[in-house]
Each structure stands twice: as structure tokens, then as C-alpha cells.
Amino acid sequence: MALDRLRASLAGAPVVRFGDYEYFVHPITDGIPLGDPAVLEEVTDALVRAGDWTRCDKIVTAESMGFPLVAVLSLKTRKPYVFIRKRKYGLPGETSLKQATGYSRADMFINNIDRGDRVVFVDDVLSTGGTLYAVVKALRALGAEVLEALIVFEKTGEKARMEKDLGLTIRTLIRVEVRDGRLVERP
User: Fold this and answer.
1) What is the pLDDT of residues 56-95, one digit of tens each?
2) Domain span at 98
3) Domain holding 181: CATH number?
4) pTM score of the predicted model
5) In what order do the strands lie in the sheet with 145-154?
């Protein structure tokens, strides 16, 4: 996976602080700076290659950064998508979960997941693992089988711990870090 366009786009990613947390802003994660369709296509093509779509029934992401990724993946894989939302709709079968990241806490709500569903979770960034942990636990509690997690950016060294804690394969496309106020790729 060359990901040349994605790698080149790192240089233009602003870094902002939320307390002690350094948050990078990137078109794939935030739509800021302006998103380049060629980068989105490169990333989603790489996610299609990285995933095992043969057993997948539904693609799942959490609001809101994964929405563009999952919409394009749905088109490419012909699998339906589920958005875990921050808004409660009060629909039959809706389930809530608590999510905590490095910079926020939120209640989230799951609809359209049924017992026996085989799902692939997709997200933009693996940082603290708070979103991934909460979502996987909630999906499993609903009786879904989480086949794997596909994530664009791995920001911290939490991947190995999360794989062990969750008993889940996590595939990331590129490892990054904030160094001297800039987003850079790390080995």
C-alpha cells in the first residue's frame, strides 16, 4: 500500500490543543482542510484491500468522522452501513453506550444491529482506543460478531493492547504522531 497521496497530505494537517491533548485536523478525519477526492479514493481503496469483506454483513462507524469512509466503502463493497449516532432517536431496539476519547465523553446510540450480524468497524483514528473499546463491547452485547476493525490513522501505541484486550484484529493504514506541533508519519 503506497498511500502516497495520504502521506503527502500529512504536511498540511493543522494541530490544535484540547487541554493536554494534541488533536490533528485532516481532510480524512474532519473534512478540514478541504478534502481531496483522490486522497479519499486512495484511502478507501486501501481499506477495501485491508478488510475481509466476504463474511461481513454490515459496516459500522461512530459519528461522525467515519461517515465519509463508510459511505464510500459501502459503495465499493456493496455492504450496508450503520452509523452509531450521538443523538438519541428513541427507536425500537436502540441501544446506548458511553464513549470516552482523549478529548471528550459522549453518549452514543446504536440502531440497526441485530443478534448474529457480522460487522466490520471502520474509523478514522485510533488514539486512546476509547471509541473502539466502547463500540466493540456494545456491539458484542447486542449479539453481533465484530470481525475486525479498519482504521486509517494509528496515532498512539494502543493498537497491540486493544487487540489483546478486545481479542480483535485491528488493521491500520498509517502510523502518525504529533511532533513539534506537526503531524508526521512514524515508523
Assistant:
1) 999 999 987 899 999 999 999 999 999 998 888 888 888 8
2) 4-185
3) 3.40.50.2020
4) 0.92
5) 81-84, 58-62, 118-126, 145-154, 170-179, 182-185
